[in-house]
Hints:
Layout: E1 2-13, E2 16-27, E3 31-35, H1 42-49, E4 57-62, H2 69-74, E5 75-78, H3 90-100, H4 106-115, H5 129-141, E6 147-151, H6 159-172, E7 178-182, H7 186-189, E8 195-200, E9 203-209, H8 210-213, H9 220-231
Amino acid sequence: MAIITVEGLTKSYGKKTVLNDMSFTLPTGQVIGLFGPNGCGKTTLMKILTGLIHDYSGTVLIDGNAPGEKTKSMTAYLPEQTFVHDWMRNIDAINYFNDFFGDFDKAKALEMVSRFGLDPKQKTKTMSKGMQEKLLLSLTMSRQADLYILDEPMGGVDPASRSGILNFIMENYAQKSTMLISTHLINDLEDIFSHTLFIGNGRVLVNDSVQSLTAGGKSIEDIFKEVFSNVW
Length: 232
């Protein structure tokens, strides 16, 4: 079963084509790594999947539905940029999510914030980038979603904290759901992936299971370097 089906997807910004007649399917119930160099269209693809970009050609389906109100209700999206207002305290952001999303688990969000050592009463604008990312992860992963889409979820988190945060994410996301994670931290996150999608020059370069790709003894990071040394 495919959670994501894309056929003939093309998206341009002016004269620059970012996604060029792209077609692929992604399996349900997997943790999928989305890999590619800067500017290859990963964030654009994620915004299309989450219904934030509409001016594209081709077909995009989430669990058989075009991106819209129904798919937004089943998809938890963590963008690379913060999405909480400066005036909010952490508890305000949690309450906002609790009011907005019917699948939000407030008790889990409070637990995650506590585990990350965040003060519920602290204003988000006074926090470091790493602290803000921990809050955003807490909010996103406290939804009982069918599909989680995470864009560089730990880019601002210090290396010493990544392992613990990653373990907590994997322990707490909704079972039987799918996670699509865009990251440059392949070496740090490699062990969690069961499937990979490599994109570059607007095309799909690799769409395969980790088991198949690493059967010859190479790591995902090794394969990443091979794929993009030939493309760029």
